[in-house]
Amino acid sequence: MRALSRVVVSLTLLTSTAWGLGNNFPTRAKVEPCEEVRIAQEEQFSAEPETTIFTVSAELAEKCLQSVPIKKKDALRLVDSISSFWKWQSSLDYLTDPPKGYLLPAVDLIGGLKEIRRNVAKGKYKGEAEFQRALYHLATDAHDGHLDLPLDAISTFFYKRVEIGGLVSVSADGKSLPEIYVQYDLKAAASAELDWTPSAVDRINGKDAVQWLREYSYNDKSHDPDALYNNMFYSIPARTKGFLGGFAHQHAIYTGKTTTIEFKNDTKVTFENIATFTESFEGVNDGKSFYAKFCNATLTTEPNSSAKKRNVVQAAPITQSRAVKDPRALYPDAVYFLSNGDVAGYFLDGEFSDTAVLSVLAFISTYQDGISEAFSELVVRFLAACRKNGKKKLIIDVATNPGGKVFVGFDLFKQLFPNAEIKNRFNFRAHEQYEVLGDKINDLLTDDKLTIADIEQADGLFDPDVYTRADGKKFSSWKEWYGPDTVHGYKFTRPARWDLENPGLTKGGNLMVSGYQDRLDVASQPFDAENIVLLTDGACASTCTILASLLKQQGVRSVVMGGRPRDSPMQAIGGVEGSMVLTLEDLYTIIKPVFDKYITGNELRRLEDTDLGELYRSAPYLMGRTSIDGAANVNYQNALHPDDDTLTPTQFVYEPADCRLFYTQEMMFDISAVWTAAANVAWGGGECVSGSASGAF
Ligand SMILES: *[C@@H]1O[C@H](CO)[C@@H](O)[C@H](O)[C@H]1NC(C)=O
Ligand SMILES: *[C@@H]1O[C@H](CO)[C@@H](O)[C@H](O)[C@H]1NC(C)=O
Ligand SMILES: *[C@@H]1O[C@H](CO)[C@@H](O)[C@H](O)[C@H]1NC(C)=O
């Protein structure tokens, strides 16, 4: 719908003809910035009718956004709906007062919303963009990749620095402190016949470059400062996903009309920043009509409660599909690869010819029937090839892995360690909305007289039958699962695990995990734990963190790449460690039929004044105010280590990798140089960055 659909621009009203022919009349002087955007789109469209991505200067885009008025009533309604929804965020309480070991600032999400609400009421925001950015920054301050609030106005433009392109942070030898370079420079130097040495970036917009990038990096959602820093840069895995790094591509953040770079050789260059957009600006003449068009909360797709049953085990948002012709163009030839590029297996040669690499860019990034099974099958085949070819060691490369399907991660683990138990636990925030809905739904689930087909919550979020207790036994009831327990002064459900023996869980399109139900026939353990290394760049999030935790429990070591230029350890896992995403649309799909059919009279009157009542009323509005209908998400499940008696969500636990390495120039063009370096520190006696090696290295 709005975000990605092909734009059809009316060509009947080309005001541009008035000034396209050397006309000296100042016809543009009065043109509103948003109208100028529309005209630019019309021109680009008529010049190239296949165009779906349009470009204007960042300055013009920002002027257009700044001209959009705020509507107080709408803004208040938006804040109230977010407030009810965010109560589902599992880390809400911990974020206000994070335990030692969490490296980022505390944030009070609900308090922050109250403040924004007060500011709206007092008329403090000059326009819609300033208001939405306040919400955006508040959400980002949670540094949780599952907490997403893509609001309509500020999602219209993507700010980019395409002319400079990506930056890289590379070290001369992988151990000495890295410096920053322009990736295009390194590429030109690598391919040039001339003997040219690129100069490092010294300052950005007048500020020390490392400092500038560090500050800027906090606009992203990782919860680790080194992972945030890495996210600024180009890398082969990032490029494979169409991302040149957060410096080149930063959504929604405007940093001025230009970017000035000063190199160490004293050359100073200024580049123009641009903005791209895909929405049709037809009918947009000014900020007011921009608001009417893009901040129009009318849903284009009605949430449909009888639509195909939702998949309960879905962590991490699904990214856009990649071009599939050669999904791994920058990688060497694989032994096997999945058609969408998510996973591929390689063999190293030379000194490490006994080493295999399993590169996992995502635990499913595109929806297709059977894709999870295909992933699992590819791993089966690749591990068989490893056995057949006498491979003794394995590197699991999860750089930039944002997660995906939890059971696909479980399955990979069980193929590597068929005899190990999946002991990872989780809990939910125990709050009024979950309790009231859970009580109601479980009454319905256990009442034979009611037809509950329209609720479709058997084997869903509220059904204790999809979980087991931490000891693997079933919960006796919803009440037993709900608890609540008091942890760290806050209320949570009982710690639980997924019940992988429950066939209901695998009905909804979830993979049946190797070693469970009908898949008891699993090949023997292919590698010893000390011969496996998990290779990350800190970005590992969601399902990736679940796998990392399971591997660590077996004694698998981790090597992490990059990070801030300093000699110190770095965490292997910097992405969100919460383990489940809840979309507003999915939640509303549950709430609506319960309210519409099963809550009446006094109960309805009582609930009207609660957060749940608010969400029932305002969820459609909030869904209509996101850039894609219903695209607001929270994380509803905290991951817990199996042996942590304090039950601290792993999101807040500091865990350094066993060894850290910096990238080298070569690694920017040859991914096998990264793998060889990891093999070399793991098994070849190579050294880690000073101060970063754990006892295991
Ligand atoms: C300084 O280095 C930059 C970046 O490598 C390069 O583009 C520029 O041409 C160099 N300037 C001089 C005077 O060599
Ligand atoms: C809001 O969207 C609906 C549905 O697309 C449309 O019918 C209506 O005209 C829009 N309102 C404005 C003010 O553009
Ligand atoms: C809801 O989804 C079901 C199943 O996909 C479909 O048959 C039905 O037409 C949909 N209803 C609406 C109102 O879109």
UniProtKB/TrEMBL annotation:
Residues 374-562 form the Tail specific protease domain. Residues 1-20 form the signal peptide. The keyword Signal applies. The keyword Cell membrane does not apply. One of its GO terms (molecular function) is serine-type peptidase activity. GO terms for biological process: proteolysis. Residues 166-281 form the CPAF-like PDZ domain. SUPFAM superfamilies: ClpP/crotonase. Keywords: Signal. Pfam families: PDZ_CPAF_rel, Peptidase_S41. This is Tail specific protease domain-containing protein.
